[in-house]
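[audit] Reproducing an earlier prediction to check determinism. Same input, same settings, fresh worker. If the tokens differ from the archived copy the diff job will pick it up downstream; this log only records the rerun itself.
[audit] input (480 residues):
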Amino acid sequence: MIVRHQLTYTTTGTHRYEEEVSPHAVDNTTNRSANTRSVQRSADPVSNRAVGSRFMTNRRTPTSLPIGGRPAYEVMADLTDRRSHDVKWADGRTFGLVFDGGEDVREVAEEAARLFFHENALNTLAFPSLGSIQSEICSWTADLLHGSGAAGFLTSGGTESILCAVLAARDRAKVERGLTDPVMVLPISAHAAFHKGAHMFGLRTRTVPVTADWTTDLDAMNDAVGPDTALVVASAPQYPQGTVDPVREVATLAANVGASCHVDACMGGFVLPFAEMNGCTTQPWDFQVEGVTSISADLHKLGYAPKGASVILHRSRELRKYQTFDFDGWLAGRYITPNMQGTRSGLPMAAAWAVMQYLGIDGYRRLVNTTLETADSIRAGIRAIEGLRVLGDPVHHLLAMSTEPTGEDETRRIDIFALGEALANLGWHLDRQGPPPSLHMTVSAGNAKVVDEFLTDLSAVAEQVRGVTAGEAGQYATLE
């Protein structure tokens, strides 16, 4: 029996997770679903309230600005107090959201940020420093991704980079192929930002399932790609389970109909190249693959730059032009913007440039090696605990921890969200996700210093929560 994973939507406000589906795509505009074994849970955002809200305080929110202002020391003390309730990412106890390259990397980024705190990249003629910074970062990234001739821009994060890729693919399909009702084909593992882009820019989405190893079902994708396809999506790696899609095959399907192919490497763009340099090879996934037209890679993730800095690259300047907005039909002259923003802060751009220059190839290789060794240790620790499993076989820095049957003895069963709550009570932050219910971890070099402590706590709380049910607790969200 071939196991595939599929998510379909109903008209009653629920979503259905299916473990066995037919090898066909789901066009989300028609709400098709298969007659299969399923689990339903409410999609109501109120009932799916994030457990992280327990960190909120009862502080009264001011309804208006103070008339005379407040002393600076008082303002800073207030901010410091508010920050005390946030996750302690600098301690290495947060597996996601913020990625720490070390105190020295932080210091370099902060000094660069101070230099460019107020600069505005809306007009790089006025700020040529930011123009050169953007150009150099894109050039360095293109070199890492085998993109000779590639061109792109900096954005505020992975979501914006993905939105730019969707917009460019839509406009390319309209200009080159005359598509007026474009479709995006993507696996259910692809980032939600693609669906956001489809919503914003008027594309229909056609989702395909993933196989038992959590990679794109190529048979289903082949059925889904057709003359109306503007964009086909692959991930390297995908976020939920951390596996790398078969990019070469996906890109071929896109090229066969003249569609764009975007590789979401927001999580892997500054990991996979250095992992390969260190001997951890993976299937071709970047501009080495014919048919790949654009790639997104986040510097503020495993590039260890502060928020928010990402790179969107297109295979050529000719393809990049579809991303740019050029308008002169108003009274202030020609207005050209390369992405979603108008005004763009120079702070994250300069900080990212400084971090890349400070680390260099050798620095990134060192951080990636530490990261992957830490992730390997965590995967081994999870698999050693009865009733826990890692979904799929990820080999890089992303992983999802779930449960497996422990026989008929319910006292030995582990509820994964009860486990997550117990870990949170000890100060560990892991994102909840699903379907299927799981705890997500993005491992970075900053977690290495506490990996032994984490595995000790994980083993202990796994025993404590056996037989305990957490119920339908809320899911965490991934925010740029």
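[audit] rerun output stored. Observation attached for the diff report: The chain has twelve helices and 18 strands.
[audit] end
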